[in-house]
Amino acid sequence: MAVSINTVYQTVLYILNKEQRGYIPPAEFNSLATQVQSEIFMSYFPDGNQLNRQNQNNTQNDTEFFNMFKDTAYKLFPFERNAAFTYNATNLGFIYAGAGVIYKIGDIISTYPGNPTYNSVTELVSQSDFNKITRSKLTIPTVQCPLAVTTQTTTLVAPSIVQQLLVKVTPFVTGMTLNINCLFEPTSPSWGFSPGGQGQYIYDTSTSVDFQLDVSEKNNLIINILKYAGVIINDPTIIQAAAQEAQQTSINEKS
Question: Which of 37-41, 173-177, 241-245 has the lowest mean pLDDT?
């Protein structure tokens, strides 16, 4: 369940206005919301790595609702989806032409046509390992055990104006398809509005975009947005209070 952009914005405004400390207009709030959501999303990876080490040392709580490693992995579900890649003959590899920006790639499935059809789990390796493995007769990839390496397109593919992720698979067979389990970067949240009769901002659900983060991140969003808001309105007391609260929350989650 996503976090309502309106709930977060109204809470931030309430806290700031409680003691007439200042006001954050929608445009500034949207910029802060995008930044904070990105920071929280990026924090899942080092946090997950740290919690996984606790699993390996048998110090992780493994009860149903208190396994923090599983909780962190669960928070990535909104950003995870299967993406179909298409072959680009110009760059001699597969590219993703769909919506969203890929952040990380996971399991790769190469589907080879024919009778029988093979849906093969494809191992992703470094360019160095790829060069070594494909040159050996003993380890040369097959349609049942294909190999993949990632690089970037050398020729731009319209409508993109920048280089794209390029996945090369060996062996390549004409007509084969590629599906990859990917993590996508968060969509930028936005508090949409329409102007009222007196120039006030009226919340507009049709033009708003909620946070993609799990509902459990609502407090973290509010606290960290307040931290940046304190910088904008030049109020060190808000910065200090929000920073202390964020630090204590982080300690509680990781201890």
Answer: 241-245
CA-CA distance, 106 to 152, in Å (whole number)?
Answer: 17
How far out from the chain centre does Cα 141 lie? 31
User: Residue 163: which residues within 8 A CB-CB, separation 6 or more?
Assistant: 152, 153, 154, 156
Measured CA to CA, the distance from residue 1 to residue 54 in angstroms comes to 28
Q: Please name the residue that has the structure tokens 């709930």.
A: 7
CA atoms within 13 A on the CB side of 156: 5
Q: Which residues pair with 80 in a beta bridge?
A: 183
Q: What is the DSSP string of 73-113?
A: HHTTGGGEEEEEEEEETTTTEEE--SSS-EEEEEEEEEEE-
Query: What number of CA atoms fall less than 13 Å from residue 102's CA on the CB side?
Result: 21
Compute the distance between CA of residue 62 and CA of residue 143 in angstroms, rounded to an integer: 39
What is the tens place of the pLDDT at every residue in 163-210? 999 999 999 999 999 999 999 999 999 999 998 888 889 999 999 999
Spatial separation of the C-alpha atoms in residues 144 and 64, rounded to whole Å: 37
Q: What is the pLDDT of residues 99-130, one digit of tens each?
A: 999 999 999 999 999 999 999 999 999 999 99
Of 218, 220, 120, 95, the closest CA to residue 170 belongs to: 120
pLDDT of residue 70: 73
Q: Work out the widest C-alpha separation in the chain, in whole angstroms.
A: 77
